[in-house]
């Protein structure tokens, strides 16, 4: 950290008393004269410091009265701004910093606000491991055999059953199990597109999806989204008019990563109808769908699929175990091609983890597990939101997710999140910088995504540090 | 099965007495007159039957003496014939029958001579499952976490150690773990080629490799092989001269599937030198390398790699567990790109199976396990070879593998192995028909690959049935 000028030091001191609640919102802070004498600095220095804090939004001057802490119970919400999609497809370039972020996710010396991993203490790992041993005993020789695609029958039965709760009736025959959700997405892309094709995606979009799109040689059209309700169907309609050759559309309909947005049912229906009208397949990534903060999980867009055009993908990586690598893709129309591609890529998904997950879903207490996880994530997202509201400068905005466990934070316009990422990392904190959530250069430059899956005092202190770093660079 | 004419029935009867050893090689069989009276058929019918058996090579007529069982202790060896590769790259088309073969591998009502799967009773499944539980307890939270590429450190250490025994010194940093060997191959192809590029492969080649080549949009040049010593380096040299744009070469240097061929060390050295001279990467699939019938496993071609141009792939699917899906790819030069591709395709390989395999390799008795497996496979390949020699028509030829557990059988030229496959399947037997081992239409039409991993009376009876089906269609 560079050394601060005198007035910056004074501003930092006052900023911290506000952050720590010594001066609550609405309260008057010491007069210029009093602080000058208390700290033994000149009147001019205090005036400069208060001017900085005013510009940052921490305080406001009231005529004839003095300086007051600005009232704000929490950060303002991120606003939707763009209404029209860019009409030119873009190539996807994935940056080294994504790989670094992923590598960092295993670094125990970092406070993990970067990757969206669930916390170990919330995962039923011991139970799943016991179920795996039991499955090995029960299966006998089949435990060691290739579980050839479409994959583990009991798991496919459970997935079909669970989907009823998402408003969707499919048969186990339509399900193909995969080595996680990203593999499911890659197989779906590959089944319906060719390199050079264009796919419509939400903006912002999870960087792993951009990775997969790049791997498949696809171009993207980024469609504007609303931070609460997800992809703009109107904007997508406009994009289709401009790009009649669009080969697919990809959305995270429920609790989009990084927005946490939830498409209302009417919007899901409209999306499927629009795409059906143009015979464009929809790939729907529902990986966060079960992690709603409400008692009942939302429907999937596939619930409105009348023409078998929606390919649904998901996995257990967010709610049961990332390390088990159990995911799936659901589509009657493309099932055969997906099986062919899966066979050609890696023959099969590991056998025992699939059986353990099937048993857990059937009678391992998945519903009780989900109730607990939903409660915990809702509380952690709330705690993170409060901390950001407290420690980040007042021009900060953030999302109000109703599910999942990530928070999308808009920093003051001058903040460069790529620089912030470096500074944070040097301070022992990982975070996901905004630009990795878009295929376009420099988009979301002043945004960051924070993982809220965990919460602790150490994390609160890390958010405080982040807030200071943000203030310093804004 | 179609009903036989009278003389065919008589021939079949005699054929079976020979197959069962009632009439040993060199012995005289009943005279025409005697058989005619014994069976109550005309002299002409017996003469027709003996003529058929003569043409099939079962018996021979000796002037002034009668008919004798032809002497043959075993089938002749498959011979190398082609010397020059075709100079035009071919597109790879993978047929539905490969998917059917893979699906059939889980069909318990079939005698499994098709897919090359190891027998369950030879795999240390219970021990691996216990090691997986132990690893879960030991790892704690990390047991559920993504094992991000390059993957499980203890496993990479064991792989590097084991490679010393194959004449190859690599560091664990050069190893990337994968979801099986085919994924390793796909990542290797993807790292060094682009769709439309041409790759030199052995002919015949394992159909899974052809699948992967097709998936990556690659064209192939099929290089002639010798059934004992593998790819012809001279033919490859010629192919490179004709195709200077060749982007990679792929070989199974040790116990090629389906040939069982083993490249001599000098040939491995010459291959690597030739490719190095032209700066063409070699992808070496060593999946059968540990399953030698000798006490010591052969070297890998990578042992002769001075310029870091050999990418080695393998897995535990043939010796420990297909269902665990644990494989790897070794390359210093392309490690970073492979990590990037693996991350973009499916993020990670399942965590616990990797740790269990690492523990098994370190102190689970892998060497003792290998000694037993080698003994068993050598015995089973021998038993299968004898049975083929006994029940198949005498024009049959076969390989003499010194490792692995498949046998490549050349049937009389008139036999169509695709038809044989259908007839065998109807009789409850799976086998791998020759044409799926080449990208070219109709190659190896009269060849089949038999899985010799298992052996039992039921299998001997199945081979007898196969022999009869072959005789009927030859």
How does this structure look, described?
The structure is a homodimer of 474-residue chains. Chain A is of the alpha/beta class and 474 residues long. Chain A has 15 helices and 16 strands. In chain A, strands 3, 5, 6, 7, 8, 9, 10, 11 and 12 form a 9-stranded mixed β-sheet that branches. In chain A, helix 7 crosses helix 8 and helix 13 runs parallel beside helix 15. Chain A is globular and about 80 Å long. At the A-B interface, helix 4, helix 5, helix 7, helix 8 and helix 11 of A face helix 4, helix 5, helix 7, helix 8 and helix 11 of B.
Keywords:
alpha/beta; 16 strands; five-stranded mixed beta sheet; homodimer; nine-stranded mixed beta sheet; about 475 residues
Give the strand content of chain A: 5-15%
How many helical stretches of chain A?
Answer: 15
Outline of chain A: globular
Greatest chain-chain contact: A-B, 60 and 60 residues
Q: Mean of residue pLDDT of chain A? A: 91
Multimerization status: homodimer
Which stretches of chain A of 5+ consecutive residues score pLDDT under 50?
Answer: none
What Rg of chain A do the Cα atoms give?
Answer: 24 Å
> Structural class of chain A, please?
alpha/beta
What is the helical fraction of chain A, as a range of percent?
Answer: 40-55%
In total, the number of strands of chain A is 16
How would you sum up the major sheet of chain A? 9 strands, mixed
- Distance separating the two termini of chain A: 14 Å
């Amino acid at each position: 950290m560079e050394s601060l000028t005198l007035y910056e030091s004074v501003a930092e001191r006052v900023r911290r008393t506000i952050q720590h609640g010594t001066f609550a919102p609405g309260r008057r802070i010491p007069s210029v004269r009093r602080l000058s004498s208390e700290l033994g600095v000149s009147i001019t220095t205090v005036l400069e410091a208060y001017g900085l804090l005013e510009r940052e939004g921490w305080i406001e001057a009231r005529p004839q009265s003095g300086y007051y802490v600005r009232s704000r119970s929490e950060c303002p919400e991120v606003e939707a701004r763009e209404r029209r999609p860019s009409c030119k497809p873009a190539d996807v370039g994935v940056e080294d910093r994504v790989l670094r972020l992923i590598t960092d996710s295993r670094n125990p010396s970092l406070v993990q606000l970067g990757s969206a991993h669930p916390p170990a203490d919330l995962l039923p790992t011991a139970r799943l491991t016991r179920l795996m041993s039991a499955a090995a005993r029960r299966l006998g020789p089949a435990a060691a055999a290739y579980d050839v695609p479409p994959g583990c029958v009991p798991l496919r039965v459970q997935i079909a059953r669970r989907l009823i709760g998402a408003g969707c009736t499919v048969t186990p025959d339509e399900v193909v199990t995969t080595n996680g959700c990203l593999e499911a997405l890659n197989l779906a892309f590959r089944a319906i597109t060719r390199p050079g094709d264009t796919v419509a995606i939400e903006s912002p979009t999870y960087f792993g999806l951009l990775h997969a799109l790049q791997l498949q040689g696809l171009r993207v059209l980024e469609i504007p989204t609303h931070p609460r309700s997800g992809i703009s169907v109107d904007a997508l309609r406009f994009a289709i008019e401009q790009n009649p050759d669009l080969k697919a559309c990809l959305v995270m309909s429920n609790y989009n990563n990084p927005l946490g947005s939830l498409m209302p049912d009417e919007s899901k229906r409209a999306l499927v109808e629009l795409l059906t009208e143009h015979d464009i397949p929809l790939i729907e990534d529902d990986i966060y769908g079960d992690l709603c903060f409400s008692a009942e999980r939302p429907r999937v867009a596939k619930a409105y699929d009348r023409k078998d055009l929606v390919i649904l993908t998901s996995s257990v990586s967010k709610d049961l175990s990332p390390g088990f690598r159990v995911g799936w893709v659901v589509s009657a129309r493309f099932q055969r091609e997906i099986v062919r591609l899966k066979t050609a890529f890696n023959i099969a998904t590991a056998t025992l983890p699939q059986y353990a997950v099937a048993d857990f879903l059937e009678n391992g207490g998945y519903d009780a597990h989900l109730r607990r996880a939903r409660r915990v994530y809702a509380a952690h997202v709330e705690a993170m939101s409060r901390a950001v509201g407290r420690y980040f400068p007042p021009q900060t905005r953030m999302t109000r997710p109703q599910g999942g466990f990530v928070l999308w934070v808009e920093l003051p316009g001058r903040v460069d999140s790529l620089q912030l990422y470096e500074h944070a990392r040097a301070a022992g904190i990982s975070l996901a910088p905004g630009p990795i959530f878009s295929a376009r250069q420099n988009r979301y430059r002043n945004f960051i995504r924070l993982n809220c899956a965990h919460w602790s005092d150490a994390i609160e202190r890390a958010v405080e540090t982040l807030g200071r770093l943000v203030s310093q660079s804004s």
